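Exercise 3.2. Students should predict the tertiary structure of the chain below and write it as structure tokens, then compare their answer with the key that follows.

Predict this chain's 3D structure.
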Amino acid sequence: MISGWGGRSGLTNSNRGLLRHVLAVDYDNLAKQLTRKLGSSDLATEALNETFLRLENVSEAKPVGSPKGYLFRIAVNIATDRRREENRRLSSREVDTLLEIADESPDPAQIAEARSEVEAFKQAIAELPDRRQRIVLGVLVEGTSSTELAARFGVSVRTVEIEVKRALEHGALRLKRKLTQRFGPRPRKPSKA
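Answer key:
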């Protein structure tokens, strides 16, 4: 037991009171030990200061056997948590780099223009004959294969491809866009002779 500790000094013999007393009396020695362990006097001081604050939550259920060792472990754990937290934070250089990345998301004007184009394309599709509408929606919306659509409508695969091509040509015309050919066989690469 620490000299001067006990009922005669007017203090209660509680874990919280004992630990606060040991921390106050042996603060410099604990700070030196922590500095050696952590390699930073600033981190040691911060850890000890937070240790004092955490003593408010110490349980009174079981007496602390080694108050100095207990305080040292709390301070080391606090310092370890702080280092982990610091490692998770981005450096100012990393933040600057992230801020320099261009925002590729569309602005409100681009969103409005895209919505307008979608509506115009829907209108263009609505102008098509019924079978052509159902075929192009089957391909574009449902992702149905040309073979499945040919079987569904009782036509050849070639007829399905022509219907899709005509629907897309109509949509491109209504949107005043150039249609890029995406159907049919892909061009062959020249063979090495």
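Discussion points: The first helix runs from residue 15 to 25. Residues 165 and 181 are 8 Å apart (CA to CA).
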